[in-house]
Amino acid sequence: MNNYQMYRQITSPGWTLGWTWAKKEIIWSMVGAQADDQGECKEFQSNIPHSCEKNPRIIDMHVGAPYNQQFPNCCKGGIVTSLGQDPANSLAAFQLSVGNSGKTYRTVSLPKNFSLLGPNQGYTCSSVSIVPSSVSFSSDGRRKTRALMTWQLACSYSQLLASRTPTCCVSMSSFYNSEITPCPSCACGCMNSETCVKSDLVISRAVRRSPQSEGTATMKQCTQHMCPIRVHWHVKRNYKAFWRVRITITNFNYNLNYTKWTLVAQHPNLNNVATVNSFIYKPLLVYESINDTGMFYGVEKLENDLLLQAGSNGSVYSEMILRKDEKIFTLNHGWAFPRKVYFNGDECIMPLPVSYPSLPNSVLPVSDIRRLVIIQILVAIVYQLL
């Protein structure tokens, strides 16, 4: 299983892969993963198969699985990182031994109705197609063998299928305006007693009843936007040749941590990033001639690759310095704020452009300031001549 998504990973509790057997196939044994249900195996008295289910559901094994049950690129608890963040861990693999399936190219039938949960709904899988047989090499690398048959399918992701409501929003602020532009109201749903909790006492009781682990039903803090994740973009400083931005990600989930999170932003000045503190930054060249999109993610050594549940430690932040391009740089009309933001591959709700932090009326554009300086110099020269 290869994850070709550049900035969307499969998070805990991990992937679940399912299909429907074409005939009466069974799974004798597995390494690297396991079926979540053995099924009805009454026909087998002594040698019991691993699974007799017509529609098996396969889940990954956890880290530390017994050595004799492991397989290369297995046993990660179902977590598969994105290709852009960690290519080495963007795949998962397991092996199974199938019975009642036939032994020749003509008698083996293709499974159908493949499904992928990662970990929630959102993926739609294509039908299986036969591709050229895969090749494997011996341990010494001197001999290669081909599989009897190789099948392939692709599963595509839709944010609309994964969640009825958005999962993140963006707020904004700047050094030149004291007002903060919050996330749009009801961006991810409206506040009610069934979807959020208000007081710390209620929170502590609810957390004791609900296990604090990834993948459980979300319990959010009551906010005006009701989003599990808020991304705050703050224009912090304006220098002669550079400008500085502070990015803060806040988790409003009380029982959900985000492992190996990713943040993607689109801004025309991301083609001139000078430094990024605390986060790792990678440009995403969506189009070869345009470099305006970049991906941010945490550093394992700084322990900010894990976004903890809501509370005092439920946020991570970074500061970024960008070089100015005098031809395009401006603080007018919200230019300094991102065009789009994605968290874990899902697009975040942005405020309306009319609500972006604006420059004070007394602040003139750079071109007007230069014109004013020239006029003042000319007036001074004329005055001296008189």
Helix content percent band: under 10%
> What do the pLDDT scores average to?
87
> What fraction of the residues are assigned to beta strands by DSSP?
25-35%
Q: How far apart are the first and last residues' alpha carbons, in Å?
A: 83 Å
Radius of gyration: 27 Å
Question: What's this, in brief?
Answer:
This protein has 386 residues and is mostly beta strands. The chain is 9% helix and 31% strand.
Q: What descriptive keywords fit this protein?
A:
386 residues, mainly beta, 6-stranded mixed β-sheet, 5-stranded antiparallel β-sheet, 3 helices, 31% strand, disordered C terminus
Architecture blueprint of SSEs:
Blueprint: E1 16-20, E2 26-31, E3 33-35, E4 57-60, E5 95-99, E6 112-117, E7 123-125, E8 129-131, E9 135-137, E10 144-146, E11 150-152, E12 155-157, H1 159-162, E13 168-174, E14 177-181, E15 196-197, H2 200-209, E16 220-221, E17 229-238, E18 242-251, E19 258-259, E20 263-266, E21 273-276, E22 279-283, E23 293-298, E24 306-307, E25 315-323, E26 340-343, E27 346-347, H3 366-385
Parallel strand pairs: 13-17, 15-16
Antiparallel strand pairs: 1-4, 1-6, 2-5, 3-4, 7-12, 8-11, 9-10, 13-14, 17-18, 18-25, 19-24, 20-23, 20-26, 21-25, 22-23, 26-27
